[in-house]
Batch of 4 targets.
Target 1
Amino acid sequence: MSEENKNEETVQKVDVVEEKDEITKLKDTILLQKEQLEDQEDRLKRLMAEFDNFKKRSSKEREGLYNSLISDIVTSLLPVIDNLEKAVSVKTEDEAYKQGVELVLKQFKEVLTANGVQEIEAVGIPFDPEVHEAVGMVTDETLGEKIIKEEYRKGYKIGSKVIRHSMVVVAN
């Protein structure tokens, strides 16, 4: 072999080695970029999950604040409703006056219902300390044990939150 062929063969070998080095460098660069991309995707997924949790938490807080405000307002109006109910139950000779009071009471109750306020059932159902407040006990053979016989004051709730407990008399 001639000197020229040897040089050419050496140059080719050097070119192949350089190409292999370059391919190795490119592979390393691709692996590094792939790792960086996976890391960024992971961070993006975590950030999206955190944002979703934030939205849910904010929504719950807003709803809780709204219900709290409504319950504060309703609590201050409940004595007015109690007095209207007493006015309706009183005997009067003026039927037009009585009907007017009944209409005002009905309108008040419709506004409460429209805002998610519900009356707590009492008479004839079992006593539940979560929603009822016992102020007396009587013996009544016609009713079962711990059945509410009488209601002194109506109770109200918004959703599952009790605004005011019912004051009741429990049988047996």
Target 2
Amino acid sequence: MHEVMGQNGFHAVLNIARLPYLVDSYPPPDFEPGLRFDEVGRLMEAVEGIYGVRGGRRLIKQSGHYCFKYGIEGFGGVIGFADFALRLIPVSLRVRIGLEVLAEIFNRYSDQFITLGENEDWYFFMMKQCGLCWGRQTEGVACALAEGLLEETLYWITRGRRFAVEEFICLATGQAMCAIQVGKTPLN
């Protein structure tokens, strides 16, 4: 979010989210949880409060892209090997593998519980416990960061292809889970 909003914008968000202790001390880039779910929910709500729901979700989604870019750097040499191996696999299988790996990372390193589903046209990334909208009540879906993270994951794993990625069910609207649909066919 710091990259997307700039230092002053992000510091304002942290203060409104009642997270001033993070202003000059971000959590370390490791697999340890740096924020509690209620803190993440307040952070997302503060962004939407400052920039409006539409503008805030756009910025949050862009932040999801950066989360992937910075997150993948932590995997170092493993990525080089995986990148080479992925070139040999059909795009449809790369998408499925990307979703499975991302779900496993969330399940292993956070308190979120991700399951995957699919039908003929879509994959479904379902979050039964979601830190992005934790403690929130909204009119519409509120997990734009997950959408951005999924978009960037698929862009990387398919070497530049874009896919339809859209949350259609959200805990913040009173539903039983958050669910994001991912098109099986590239848009480009």
Target 3
Amino acid sequence: MITLLLIILILILIGAVPAWPHSRSWGYGPSGIVGILLIVVLVLLLMGRI
């Protein structure tokens, strides 16, 4: 379950990078938010909370 969650978050992060044509006008907001979510999940994983 955790591995699946991490894979999904990484794919969303890659898809939200402003280099892709579909997300070029979004700016850095979506990738920043998903990056923060990824960091939070990794910290919780390392602390043993998940």
Target 4
Amino acid sequence: MSVQVIHDKNGVPEYAVVPYELYKRLIANSDDDALYESLPYTSNNDDDVTIPHEVVSIHIDQDVSIQAAWRIHRGLSQQDVASALDMTQAAVSQLESPDSRPQKRTRIKLAELYKCTPEQLVL
């Protein structure tokens, strides 16, 4: 039985295409608790944080960070944000890089500018 793996643009496995008969067996047994592994979970204050659909769509459709998606959603340029926060456009660009985790005080300033909460600026 062969399984086809579909990778994202970075080569990371994203989907598995399985034969239909295997799929039907997996679905038929989906209520079997033995198929699931219990994972530890600790709740926190951010559990109920949501991000508007429009922002998520920009994030996905334009392949930009969540910070950039908020900026675009609010109709601002990087230069607009730089001027409002008294920083350079290059610094704003760096904040919007995919691996960026802005400091709390920067997230607070961005949240005020984007009219959202600081928690909505990080995934």
